[in-house]
Amino acid sequence: MGIGVLERYRDLLPVNEETPVFSMGEGDTPLVRSRRLGPELGCADLFFKLEGCNPTGSFKDRGMVVAIAKAMEANSVGVMCASTGNTSASAAAYCAYCGLTAWVLIPKGEVALGKLAQAMAYGARILLVDGNFDAALALVREFTANNPITLVNSVNPHRIEGQKTAAFEIADDLGDAPDYLFIPVGNAGNITAYWRGFVEYHQLGRTETLPRMMGFQAEGAAPIVRGAPVANPQTIASAIRIGNPASWKPAERARDQSGGVIDAVSDDEILEAYRLLASREGIFGEPASAASVAGLIKMRRNGLDLRGKRAVCIITGSGLKDPDMAVSSTQADTVEVKPNLEAIESVILESLTPAARNDWLGG
Ligand code: F0G
């Protein structure tokens, strides 16, 4: 049974005697060694951190469990967030578990189907905003500042605290920090959280090294790369369709203190990585998650030498979140067959090489 991040890392989290400690099974996600992409890219030690294995299918659960615990400690009646989908799914689930109300503001028509389905199923109060994520977040910040409802976007420091536990897990699994950490950047809370986690572990003497933080925004939603907010952010990776990230400055600090980069990848590069990850590694991440792998591929193409280096790509959310994208962007290898064995055999024979076909037919 997973003990959850509040229990496992309670000494390093804002947990006191009044804080309820509970878990829906968040954290302790797999760190999977790449079998194909890594070697092909000249990086023998490449790992994927599968954050889609969290209870609601994204990394948000790590921070949400802390934010909800602190909201309960403060006797909050409910929570509110703006979201491109995953934060709202996570808030909705933890509120359902704890008996709180979740009000979620989501940009109308811009949230992936699976995430909307989650918010609905978990019983969140859904406010569809006729505007983008940045507009929704501005509204939530203002509303929660003046009303007794807890804001659970990553401007809530407890969210970042919880999310830093992913860095602890990587260091615990590898025995030290990796050389490079590749991560998608949207509202920029997660890159901030990972950096904090690695720095804290280093200060505690639990690691000898610190990673370079390699953050990637989508080209059409790359305010940090451009150095200015993007009024109308556009990308197929809806989770990171954000033009004015709340944790902009801390993300820049993570980049600069670690000697890393925050760069942009195009939608085509994201889609290429999305397909490669699923078809060559068996890992189905959502498009935003593939930005980390797209970034790795881009850096490699631009000459980054990864020989002898250990790298981790964060796969932030499950591909099941966005089924429309999978169906519309991959060439499915499907064929209709009559319901009999001959029809099935003929399909299989067609897909074999001539030599294999001969063997099969015993000739
Ligand atoms: N990957 C996924 C799957 C996300 O859902 C998000 C953010 C990110 C990456 C980027 O993380 O914002 O900390 O830089 N999703 C937020 C949401 C914005 O509302 O679910 P970040």
Automatic annotation (TrEMBL):
Catalytic class of the enzyme: lyase
Pathway: Amino-acid biosynthesis; L-threonine biosynthesis; L-threonine from L-aspartate: step 5/5
A GO BP annotation: L-serine catabolic process
Molecular-function GO terms, alphabetical: L-serine ammonia-lyase activity; pyridoxal phosphate binding; threonine deaminase activity; threonine synthase activity
UniProt xrefs under CDD domains: Thr-synth_1
InterPro entries given in the database record: Ser/Thr_Dehydratase (IPR050147), Ser/Thr_deHydtase_PyrdxlP-BS (IPR000634), Thr_synthase-like (IPR004450), Thr_Synthase_bac/arc (IPR026260), TrpB-like_PALP (IPR001926), TrpB-like_PALP_sf (IPR036052)
EC assignment: 4.2.3.1, 4.3.1.17
Residues with N6-(pyridoxal phosphate)lysine modification: K60
Lyase is among the record's keywords: yes
Pfam families assigned: PALP
Cofactor list: pyridoxal 5'-phosphate
Keyword line: Amino-acid biosynthesis, Lyase, Pyridoxal phosphate, Threonine biosynthesis
SUPFAM superfamilies: Tryptophan synthase beta subunit-like PLP-dependent enzymes
Catalyzed reactions per annotation: L-serine = pyruvate + NH4(+); O-phospho-L-homoserine + H2O = L-threonine + phosphate
Domain (Tryptophan synthase beta chain-like PALP) ranges: 23-317
Family: Belongs to the threonine synthase family.
NCBIfam families named in the record: thrC (TIGR00260)
PANTHER family: L-THREONINE DEHYDRATASE CATABOLIC TDCB, THREONINE DEHYDRATASE, MITOCHONDRIAL-RELATED
Protein name: Threonine synthase
